Amino acid sequence: MGRLFDFMLPDNKSPLTADSTDGLFHFITEVSLVLLVGITIAMIYFAFKYKRKSEDDKTPLITHNNTLEITWSVIPLLITLVVFGWGYSGWLNLKAVPNDAYEIQATAYKWNWNFNYENGAQTLNELHVPAGRPVKVVMQSRDVLHSFFIPDYRVKHDVVPGRYTYVWFQAEEAGESQIFCAEYCGTSHSDMLAKVIVHEPDEFEEWLDLNGGGIQGSPVEQGEQLVNLQGCQACHSLDGSAKIGPTFKGLWGREQQLADGSTIIVDENYIRESILNPGSKVVEGYQNVMAPYEGRIDDDEITNIIEYLKTID
Amino acid sequence: MAITAETKKMTTLQVKRFKPSENPTNTYLTDEKGVWAWMTTVDHKKIGIMYLVSVAFFFALAGFLAIALRTELWTPAKTFIEADTYNQLFTLHGAMMVFFVLIPSIPAALGNFILPMQLGAKDVAFPRLNLASFYIYVIGAIFTFAALASGGFDTGWTFYTPYSSDTNAAGVIWVTLGVFILGFSSILTGTNFIATIHKLRAPGLEWGKLPLNIWALYATSIIQVLATPVLAITILLLAFENIMDIGIFDPAKGGDPVLFQHFFWFYSHPAVYIMIVPGFGIISEVITTFSKKTIFGYWAIALSSLAIAFIGFLVWGHHMFTSGQSAVATTVFSFLTFLVGIPTGIKILNWVATLYKGSIQMKTPMLYVFIFLFLFSIGGFTGITLGALSVDIHLHDTYYVVAHFHYVMMGGTLMALLAGLHYWWPKMTGKMYNETLGKIAAVLIFIGFNMTFLPQFVMGAQGMPRRYYNYIDQFTPFHQTSTIGSYILGVAFLIILYYLLKSLFGGEKAPSNPWNSRGLEWQSTSPPDFHNFDHTPVVINGPYDYHKPMEEFQLGLAVSHNGHDAHADVETKEEKA
To answer: Could you say which of 3.40.1620.10, 1.20.210.10, 3.40.1110.10, 1.10.10.10 is the CATH number of the domain covering B15-557?
Structure first.
């Protein structure tokens, strides 16, 4: 029996958040199995034992039995109250972030996860955390609902535009775990994946130092880092293939056919407008699905991205 | 002594036995013929059949989509359709199954046919309104097809904002208006049934003698009338937001996306009971007939339907444990969710107890009842798992939820529908279906269903999120098992379609009461007369009094007035002709 349940749940890599959940999952599943087997055996036994012998069979008049009714109402009620209390206490624990938790900011948008660390380090679709220490991820969404789900830690929370939500966990050992987006968010919902990468504490510090300080280098280098961190390539290819959005390859100076029938030459102002307000000039053959960057990116960053895009041909 | 409506108490009804003819010359099928007669009919039986055909059509369509979805999931990456197509197909599958199949299936199709007959009435209280509700359903369907024509919609059947207000606006507006219109069909059917149950019961048919199917439909109607308007309001607000740019649910316009979820589930959770409670009614009818035995715990089953209807209004927030709703709300909703599980458990145990010392005949409808009891129990138990707060955090929006609601909706409602369809088929059509093929199909459905959805519990618990077009490799074996299962299900439904159609053309002629049921609807000819009975039925016994002889269930007024509003005096009316 134990092996069946180990098979049903993924590895428990954050016992502080997963233990209570797993215990309750086992409890409910086991009690349910016992009751289900009982009901099924009773049904099948009755079906054979009381099989119709002839059309003139007489059956006894049994209308009800209050003792039975009360028994099979009260016992399940008590069991479910236990389940409620157990689930409630486990859930309170998921809500109560330990005081010394290490905080990381996460931004979700179609269809990427962006993580920001205390020293300005940024990662795309990789969440780097130290082992053996509680981590709190504070989340926001730029566009629609998403949901941050790490099966190995048994944590999940919707990421809601216009408000902050959070999860916490404590990975005990170095390693990797899968992050899913669990709330449907459009075309590439099922590709909105990320990985948790758990480092030993001192390795984490090293990693942080190496990647700290944010975006650096020449304008073109900075632009490239920005494009990578924002996950632009989820929709815009660099090799000329058409994805959800037009390719970046040879974009600069291209004559672009727009959905409204007009054409435009791609220049600084067009790129700027397309980043800040993508819906204003949609390219022929594509949907208007990109989230506007208005208020989320500054002018210098846009300039650097433009410099980088000029180099892709 | 004939009585008048004014002298209610302590009067004697003159009754005599009316044994239904085995060779009816005039039935509802021969009475009005031709397409126009069907389209303009106010006969509840014909309207029920028209609903049944429509529901079957949408079921075939949405079932075909399910097969396409399962085929796409054969491989972790693209198998044969694009991501956007996949997203539109699962949305369409869900929306059609919920709004066009499950909600109208039992109440509007089988209920329309059976409810007035079980009450001993000639029709529902408002026959024209009944026809209107069918056409409103048709108009709702036309809007949905208009949505497909205008670019489709890929929001999921839940239409969560702000995704639904941002993307594919035209398709979303058409389909939500379709659902809005459909809601009125549901409300009108509910109103009609409530009025009919209150006012058109045959003489002697007191509340305590109502078949449990009627109690179930009564509870369902209450939910339909009270909950559906909220859906209408929600959808209107969504349309306002999309068309006039008023910020209600979209944070970019100053709205609140979680508010939409509250509104949506305030309807859609009770709607789950609109789908399942009528199924409970069918189970009670079939299990007593094929056990030849009184139902165990009549009042427990009748009142638990009402309890479910009322508590069902207070648990909508359990769909939103991870949404960011308030902590207090989350706690209360979890607690109430367990309370609504109890009356459901009571029903199952009462049905099993009904089998005890019965005379059990395993005909196809009974086979479906057994399948129902097994599958629906699994659906119920996994509902407890999902109601537990901490566990739901892990399982929410995974395949575990998908498996759970398929066990409840397909393993529950659809199995009950199949039980009812086979049970009442001889009454509705006057023909017997092929019993052997019926059993083969039922067994295939049982195998195919479990093969499709059991693996989904496992991969869901392992973390496989729902609505995923691509998935990570480790889930491949589960998905492939599930896909094979869905093909078996498809074959089984084709077999059912085959033998039911075959029975219509050249099936064996059905006797008036092939199962020797004590139910009032079986005391008419097969198929029934245009006005159901050619007499006014009188009821003296309970609907499941199998210890009493059949003669006592074949009574009608000896004189020709309708006898409504008169109370039969149980002690004195045994004078049979």
So the answer is: 1.20.210.10
